[in-house]
Amino acid sequence: MSETVLLIGHGSRKTAGNEEILRFADNWRTHHPGWRIEVCFIEHADVLLGAGLDNAASNSRRVIMVPLILNAAGHVKMDIPEAVDAARARHPGVEFVCVPHLGMGREIHGILRQRIDQLLRDLAVPDPRTTGIILLGRGSSDAGANGEIARMARWLFEDMQHDLVDIAFTGITLPRLETVVQRHVKLGMTQIVIQPIYLFTGVLIERIQQQVTRLRQCYPHIAVALGEHFGFDEGIYAIADARVREYATTGGMLECDGCKYRLAAAHDHHHH
Fold first, then answer.
1. Rounded to an integer, what distance in angstroms lies between the CA atom of residue 233 and that of residue 200?
2. DSSP tag of 77
3. How far is CA 235 from the centre of its chain?
4. Cβ atoms of residues 10 and 42 within 8 Å
5. Which of 38, 99, 142, 175 could form a disulfide linkage to 179, CB 3.0–4.6 angstroms apart?
């Protein structure tokens, strides 16, 4: 029997988003030709968590799960642990090891800093005191997940000389992008850098592009630079590599694995 690495993607209603995750897996296989790497999705795709875990467990003694997720919200804290509990019952002879999700740590901070530096160069390196930066997250009903975006903004503020480093969200929570851009304009910013905190494309990436087009029309005197999602950045592959190498030998705990609060909680996570 062998060992299988299972990439867990979020999944998108847009086929292009799911295809990007499959392409990510193909690229990762070229880094590790000796690994068996499979893919599944949490929602909006053909191979969902249950089927993905079953496929990975087939002819494997151990399954190492790598969630391609930045924020620890309902999917990481509830959906993945519940699916793994069920898989463990179906495959008692297989060890399931879930490494931590990608998270919003110093590695992601480094990627964001590089992306923002490039956007500033695209704007001809304007005065940081009049150039606002906005980190744009997906938004969650989990306050802790939203707080990770706020922490990232604070780290960038500490590193850079910009007067305004803000956060905004695409949905579920506040503030929204339009409100934050309006505030930057009122406070005298003449350039605004918007960096989405997204790994892969999808419905929300298209929505962001439409919103930025409209904002540029509303504020033609403001230079707005929009960053791209960054799931194919070499830094993301490096994080995934490090997670597998660290936890493949020591074993890994699921987020809230065995937590009495998770076991007692009712699952009501949803998207609107």
1. 11
2. I
3. 13
4. yes
5. 175
pLDDT at 255: 47
Return d(Cα 169, Cα 190) in angstroms, integer.
Answer: 22
Measured CA to CA in angstroms, residue 83 lies from 61, 189, 230, 248 at distances of 18, 47, 27, 20
Alpha-carbon Rg for the chain, nearest whole angstrom, is 20
**Continuous segment of H or E residues that includes residue 237:** helix 234-250
8 A C-beta contact, residue 41 and residue 51: no
* Band (250; pLDDT cuts 50, 70, 90): low
**CB proximity list for 176: less than 8 A, separation 6 or greater:** 168, 169, 170
Would the pLDDT of 271 be above 80? no
Question: Residue 148 is which amino acid?
Answer: E
Tokens representing 103 are 């998270």
Which conformational region is residue 237 in: left (phi greater than 0), alpha (psi within -120 to 50 degrees), or beta? alpha
Of 105, 106, 180, the closest CA to residue 139 belongs to 180
Give the Cα separation of 134 and 177 in Å (integer): 8
Q: 28: Cβ–Cβ under 8 A, 6 or more apart, which residues?
A: 7, 37, 237, 240
Count of CB atoms situated within 10 Å of the CB of 218: 11
Task: Label residue 1 by pLDDT band (50, 70, 90).
Answer: low
Contacts of 19 (CB under 8 A, 6+ apart): none
Q: Give SS3 for 254.
A: coil
Tokens of 243: 């997670």
Round to the nearest angstrom and report the end-to-end CA distance of the chain. 42
Residue 3 CA: distances (Å) to CA of 26, 81, 190: 18, 20, 53
23-76: per-residue pLDDT in tens? 999 999 999 999 999 999 999 999 999 999 999 999 899 999 999 999 888 889
Write phi, then psi, for 52 (nearest 5 degrees): -65, -40
